[in-house]
Amino acid sequence: MRNLEEERLKELKNLEKILNLLENSDDESISETTGISLENVKSIRKNYREIEKVREDYLKKGL
To answer: How confident is the model at residue 38 (pLDDT cuts 50, 70, 90)?
Structure first.
């Protein structure tokens, strides 16, 4: 059970790093830093923007 919690914590930390990169870096830098292909970085950024739009809509509606 402890290993599962440690793995989840590690994944959350990695997600935080990725979100920080998305907010503060350009696609080429992210690709170079992470080794993720430029195409995939662009796809991730597109999905991130869509998620942010939905989140903002929910916040505006008070949900």
So the answer is: very high
Tell me how far apart the alpha carbons of residues 55 and 47 are, in angstroms, rounded to a whole number.
12
Classify 40 as helix, strand or coil: helix
- Ramachandran bin of 59, using left for φ above 0, alpha for ψ from -120 to 50, beta for the remaining angles: alpha
Nearest one of 2, 4, 44, 3 to 25, comparing CA atoms: 44
Across residues 28-35, what is the average pLDDT? 90
Whether this model's pTM surpasses 0.70: no
Which candidate, 12, 55, 58, 15, places its Cα nearest to that of 34? 15
For residue 41, the tally of other CB atoms under 10 A from its CB is 23
